[in-house]
Amino acid sequence: MAGLELLFNCVSDSITCSQDALICFVHWEIVKSGYKCLGVGDEAKDGEKKSELLPRGWSESKELYAFRYRSNDDKTNFLLKAFTVDSSLIFNLMDSTTEKVSDLTVSISEYVDEASLHTFESVFKNTDELTAKLKSSLLPSKNDNPSGKSEKKKDTKKASNLRDPDSDPLLIPTRGRPSRHPPDWSDPMSPFAAGGSDLDPFGGRGGGMIVDPLRAGFPRSGFDPSSGIPGVLPPGAVPPGARFDPFGPVGRHRPGPDPDHMPPPGYDDMFM
């Protein structure tokens, strides 16, 4: 509480009620937080200078107190107002730069003894509790950025928009790069057993609904779609190794019907 006694004795003649004494205490807590008073009222006046003392005329109005403060580094200004409502003082503090507002309601009788209004040793009560309330609810923190801009901690971890290939069990790994955790679809009771060939078309499994004429088990004609189809596709129209569904005969010498094939129903009917 160093300095509060000196301030109290300097303005004791202006203290005529309990709220005056409480204003004196709050003013000194603001000064200890690194601010000094410029004057009373909302508007600045000529010839003002920063001071730890309460300005002239600070206690003329018992219903409304208004003070302007500036930080010791001249980077922050704020306006403090206190309204008397019944037996309480409602404090309102606004940062003039960021317009950030904080407020606190204090019961006067809990912290000021009106019977000892001019005796510094006994006028204030529960000072530790009042100081804690002021620091937590009203006064700006020492860690606050005076410019009002919140500083974001630098994240040393590089952000990446790429999906981790090991996090998706349905993602087929790139050729030449084995998966760290290959999906296990070999168990017939696995929930992925049905449609496993569709989920893993490159796994060499049979079945599935993806039809590939070149991998369907039918006799192959040795057709290479990348070499082109005479009269239909020029060479290089189909990239090498690409899956290609032919839209016409893929060879000149496709195998014809087998003589051992079963004849169609009604084959001997002359009217067929």
From TrEMBL:
Residues 182-249 form the PI31 proteasome regulator C-terminal domain. It comes from the Eukaryota. It is found in: Cytoplasm; Endoplasmic reticulum. Signal peptide: none annotated. Pfam families: PI31_Prot_C (PF08577), PI31_Prot_N (PF11566). Residues 138-148 have a biased composition (Polar residues). GO terms for biological process: proteasome-mediated ubiquitin-dependent protein catabolic process. Residues 149-166 have a biased composition (Basic and acidic residues). GO terms for cellular component: endoplasmic reticulum; proteasome complex. Residues 135-272 are annotated as: Disordered. InterPro entries: PI31-like (IPR045128), PI31_Prot_C (IPR013886), PI31_Prot_N (IPR021625). Keywords: Acetylation, Cytoplasm, Endoplasmic reticulum, Methylation, Phosphoprotein, Proteasome. One of its GO terms (molecular function) is endopeptidase inhibitor activity. Residues 12-139 form the PI31 proteasome regulator N-terminal domain. Plays an important role in control of proteasome function. Inhibits the hydrolysis of protein and peptide substrates by the 20S proteasome. Also inhibits the activation of the proteasome by the proteasome regulatory proteins PA700 and PA28. Belongs to the proteasome inhibitor PI31 family. This is Proteasome inhibitor PI31 subunit.
